[in-house]
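Notebook, p. 212. Picked up where the previous page left off. The plan for this session was modest: take the two constructs that came back from the sequencing core last week, fold each one, and keep the raw output in the notebook itself so nobody has to go hunting through shared drives later. Recording the first one now, exactly as returned: residue sequence, then the structure token string.
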Amino acid sequence: MRLFIGIPLAAKVVNELSEVSLRLRSSGDGLRWSAPESWHVTLQFLGSTGREQYVCATARLRELHLPPAPIRLEGLGFFDRTGILYTGVKVSPELLLLHKQVGEAMALCGFDRETRSFRPHITLARSKAKGEWDVLRELRSEIGSRRKFTEFVAGEFLLYESFLGPAGSRYEVRERFFLAAR
């Protein structure tokens, strides 16, 4: 199984991002646009996972008792090095705590700790051709002023399984973990 842990988006936020995505995309733009049902905030990518690690991961994640995390989307941006158009997510103390605790729990199951700083985001599109990101650069001028998105409070996080395919990845929820107010 190819697994990762993430936070699903509120329906209203998915609708708002869909509007932005539809406004920006054009036929033949050379981008592979992510499907709205795949949008999430990644907490940790686990990668290829055997049965034993899966059982450990779900047990450890069930032991976490953390408060709900406010999620506030920021403006659109680009990861120039990888050719990705994304929407940033503000790092709240609760979101940072959730990310840290998930990482610590997964380390107990033998998963590698993330060494990069936590930059939560939602991937909207990827350049199909590596190194040819002219379309993304052109989108910079079309994006214009910062858009305000609806804030929401994440009351759960999910363990997803990722299936790779020619049209991109497809995700299925394997487990749900609830965040509870203290």
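Okay, moving on. Second construct, recorded in the same format:
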Amino acid sequence: MVAWLCDFDGTVSPRDIGAAFAERFSPGGAASRVPELADWLEGRLGHRELTRAQCACVRARRDEAVAFARSFTLDPAFAPFAREALGRGDQVMVVSEGFDFYVRDLLEREGLGTLPWAANHLRFEPEGRVTPEFPFADPGCDDCGNCKAQHVRRYQAQGCRVVLVGDGASDRHGALAADEVLARGGLLEWCRTQGIAHTPFADFRDVAAVAR
């Protein structure tokens, strides 16, 4: 059996909704200029700490956050790919370093509400403050908020061959653990420089073609 573990921001959703949300709801886009961002890009800081720093700048109510996220769309080929894969008996899961409030909502609006997914939790506080929580973090690692390598290993323990589909830095640990990697964007360049076997893809039409 094959398990397809799909990143959300920049992959299932062509746009990075989490980054856009943080910029839109921080005064003057301050979340996109926190000093921690440069440290994360250089590999000196984990994404969990970057998320905390960016969220400290954000002021948003849940209703306006959800309304903003609904202005984004999913890859139109993702739902057909997921349904076809499930129909074959494969597993499909969304593994996101973004936030649950928009991952859940957008999947449900696409008719994929029963699809398993994992993301960081965003708690909306009084006066518009937000607090990120990381229910899928690896307690032995201070890097990612949602440890994609753990999800890969869980499916492998069930006897699945795991394919990681992703586009960015948050997919690296999952890619290292996966049996196969489909990559684009920053993950594609990283796989090339690290000598990690991978298959490039442009969208989920390509992923579906690989799956058949």
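Notes on construct two before I forget. The longest strand covers residues 91-99.
Flagging for discussion at group meeting.
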